[in-house]
Design the sequence.
């Protein structure tokens, strides 16, 4: 089980990013073509995920941002996202 959650938000859709993230973090959840939730172990940082996605580093080819998700969120969207977030609520 993951220790924390990160959100990856891209400026533009890019199918390669999801493939890259799933290679490194197999439980990556694709909410939209520009928003992914990435469950990770405690030692993984936002920089690590940004590099894995291609947002940072020498192989950078997309633009976007990585956020650490805490238990403060609100809105109205697909049920799958709420279920995923609630399964990590105690992190």
Sequence:
């Amino acid at each position: 089980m993951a220790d924390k959650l990160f959100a990856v938000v891209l400026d533009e859709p890019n199918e390669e990013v999801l493939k890259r993230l799933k290679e490194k973090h197999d439980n990556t959840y694709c909410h939209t073509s520009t928003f992914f939730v990435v469950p990770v172990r405690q030692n993984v940082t936002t920089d690590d995920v940004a590099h894995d996605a291609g947002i940072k580093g020498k192989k950078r080819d997309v633009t976007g941002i990585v956020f650490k998700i805490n238990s403060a969120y609100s809105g109205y969207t697909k049920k799958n996202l709420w279920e995923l977030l609630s399964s990590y609520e105690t992190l």
Q: What stands out?
A: The radius of gyration is 12 Å. Strands lie at 4-10, 29-32, 35-40, 64-69. The chain has a mean pLDDT of 92.
